[in-house]
Amino acid sequence: MDPIVEVVALILGFTGWVMVGVALPNRYWRTSTVDGNVITTSTIYENLWMSCATDSTGVHNCREFPSLLALSGYIQASRALMITSIVLGTLGLVAALIGIQCSKAGGDNYVLKGRIAGTAGVLFVLQGLCTMIAVSWYAFNITQNFFDPLFMGTRYEIGEGLYIGWCSAVLAIAGGACLMCSCKFNTQEKYPLPYQTRGTVHSGPAPTRSMAASTYSRNAYV
């Protein structure tokens, strides 16, 4: 295991985990577009939990979504994926702190620590994938409604919360990949075999010259 790569992977995974926590409550997952509007009196912005509006005087008002079952399916799925991402990232951080080589939490069994660190890498990759799927699915619905000429509702554009989610997903996947590549699951050293003579294992001292000479075939003599 390479300690430097493990530390870099831990930093990347931790940064991605923090950015997921920042992206989830961010209010600007989507914002109402001003494209085609001459006069804009209010701006609407939403995330997975609430919808807010700001008028021209700067006064804003937010309301939470009243019903979970009344929400669109992609919003419910994005909620579940983001929460799962935070849980996986938390478990990955704990496993990485135990499994990295410079940590004393896992003892001196480096084979076990390598496997724990590899598991942490898998958890980080799963965290990144959950985040990537959630924000990409949400962004797909935004762009689909925006370019649909038959859509009569409010058109939105991609907000900063989605960009934070994409960055966190990339960092988490990169950190997990570094952990999985740096950890060797089979780190047992291969020791040299004891001295063998014609299939017999000798655990004692090395044989004398006369004993060694007796093992040679006749072709060794002139």
From TrEMBL:
Any GO MF annotation of the entry: structural molecule activity
* Location of the protein in the cell: Cell junction, Tight junction; Cell membrane
Q: What keywords are annotated for this sequence in UniProt?
A: Cell junction, Cell membrane, Membrane, Tight junction, Transmembrane, Transmembrane helix
Q: Give the region (Disordered) as residue ranges.
A: 201-222
- Report whether Heme shows up as a keyword of the record: no
Q: Which family does it belong to?
A: Belongs to the claudin family.
Q: What is this protein called?
A: Claudin
The species this protein was found in: Betta splendens
Q: Which gene encodes it?
A: cldn15a
